[in-house]
Design a protein that fits this description.
This protein is α+β, with helices and mostly antiparallel strands. It folds into three domains: 56 residues, Structural Genomics Hypothetical 15.5 Kd Protein In mrcA-pckA Intergenic Region, Chain A, CATH 3.10.290.10; 83 residues, Pseudouridine synthase (2-Layer Sandwich), CATH 3.30.2350.10; 115 residues, Pseudouridine synthase (2-Layer Sandwich). 18% of the residues lie in helices and 32% in strands. It contains six helices and 18 strands. The longest helix has 13 residues. The chain is elongated. The model has no long low-confidence stretch (mean pLDDT 92).
């Protein structure tokens, strides 16, 4: 539930447009009830300056079973939760995996807080075998606010890749896409149906004896398998990534970890940084490489 007092600059604006100015998406507006000066109204109505708006989310059928799970919560406020996801944990139910997903645990956690079952509003998602930070908005407004501008959230990863990366820093701008039902993303021009993709990379440490490099990455676009595809395309697939050419007996999964998020607070507009420690299998590989 959000409350607004209409500013003079928005005098005579339709409620729907006003809510978009405040960060709501067009889709999100369809799922709210609006009260103008205490009375239920339609979003097509115009508002006057100093009018009081109350915006409430409509209850939606979730269809996901709440299950108690040990969530590694790294940050929480009244608008969102940031969770450190373990590797091998699926984010959202699928036809093959219908329960014991992160979504089941989030729904149970929020139900304990509010007494209601509400949908898990994931701002970002990670592959099952990728570990690290995931943002869950507690309401539609926060979700829309974070999605309204790419600069609202900066996402940083660490990865161990095969081979010795020569460049200390690199900006990778290779459009990627897939053909048919094939899972692996490859270089594909927009004319062929590919999507623009941008990833920055910098080397943290090189391990010549193991022929491995520890790198840090920042995402500027959020394409499926973007980091995995980009590192494979520049000749350094992520260690353990069977899909993108990084299969290796030293790793049972792709060693990719979303270790840091910097996001804009929905109420104060302040920047908040949250970090998650490396998982054990990742640390074990680094330990062996340095000893």
């Amino acid at each position: 539930m959000k409350k607004f007092v209409v500013e003079a600059e928005f005098h005579n604006m339709k409620i729907s447009q006003y809510l978009k100015e405040k960060g709501y998406s067009g889709r999100g507006i369809r799922y709210v009830e609006v009260y103008l000066n205490g009375k239920r109204t339609k979003t097509t109505k115009q508002v006057k300056k100093n009018a009081r708006l109350l915006v409430k989310e409509k209850e939606k059928e979730v269809g996901i079973k709440p299950i108690q799970m040990d969530l590694k919560i790294m940050y929480e406020d009244k608008n969102l939760i940031i969770i450190n996801k373990d590797p091998y944990l699926v984010v959202h139910p699928t036809t093959k995996k219908t329960d014991l997903t992160l979504a089941n645990g989030v729904i149970h956690y929020l139900q304990e807080q509010t007494g209601k079952i509400q949908p898990p509003r994931f701002f970002n998602r990670l592959d099952m075998n990728t570990s690290g930070l995931i943002v869950v908005a507690k309401n539609a407004y926060t979700q829309a606010f974070l999605q309204s501008d790419k600069e609202k959230v900066s996402k940083f990863y660490q990865a161990i890749v095969k081979g010795i990366v020569k460049e200390n820093e690199m900006m990778i701008e290779i459009p990627i896409g897939k053909e048919g039902e094939e899972l692996r993303r490859k270089e594909m021009s927009p004319e062929q149906g590919g999507q623009t993709a941008k990833t920055s990379m910098k080397v943290l440490e090189r391990f010549s004896e193991e022929n491995l490099t520890l790198i840090e990455l920042e995402l500027f676009t959020g394409r499926t398998h973007q980091i995995r595809a980009h590192m494979s395309l520049v000749g350094h697939p992520i260690l353990g990534d069977e899909l993108c050419g990084g299969e290796d007996t030293r790793a049972k999964r792709q060693l990719l970890h979303a270790f840091k998020l910097i996001f804009t607070d929905v109420e104060t507009n302040e920047k908040i940084k949250v970090e998650a420690p490396l998982p054990e299998d990742f640390k074990n590989i680094l330990h062996k490489a340095t000893n």
